[in-house]
Amino acid sequence: MPDFLANLFRRLPRPGLTNVLLGVLILLQVPLWFGQGSWLRVWHLERQLQARLAENDARRLRIAELEGEARDLRRSPRAAEERARYELGMIMPGERFVQWGTPSSSSPGSSSTGGQPGSVPASAGSQAPPKKGSPPR
Predict the structure, then answer these.
(1) Is residue 101 part of a domain?
(2) Separation CA 44–CA 42 (nearest Å)
(3) What whole-number distance in Å separates Cα of residue 61 and Cα of residue 63?
(4) pTM score of the predicted model
(5) Rounded-to-integer distance, Cα 119 and Cα 133, Å
(6) d(CA 100, CA 117)
(7) Is 42 a domain residue?
(8) Main-chain dihedrals φ then ψ at residue 116, nearest 5 degrees
(9) Of 44, 22, 21, 46, nearest in space to 34 by CA
(10) Number of structural domains found in the chain
(11) Closest CA to 90 of 134, 137, 131
(12) Which end of the chain is more exposed for a tag (fewer CB within 10 A), N or C?
């Protein structure tokens, strides 16, 4: 049997050293480009990482803003009152609600203010705005 194998190997064409090295090089390069830890995968993961880092930075800024608001609300009762006035329309007892603005753009002289900028209708300062869910007065 060993003579049979020796004769078989003698009959096969012998590849040159260059062809063998080229084949080994190709076999080593395939996993680098297309395997689980390939360059393409690393590049894709780096792009995902950059996107996540940018998202984290934006969230850190938002957290810092919220912490500042919470700190202001804890330290100053005026901050809570200001926020309630601005966001919820709070009016203290004895106060009057006055809203300054320009007339609507429908026609210059047709609003109840007489068409004069800065004038307020007589009924605007006399009562508070209706609360949400309550019927109009």
Answers:
(1) no
(2) 5
(3) 5
(4) 0.43
(5) 29
(6) 9
(7) yes
(8) -95, 125
(9) 44
(10) 1
(11) 131
(12) N
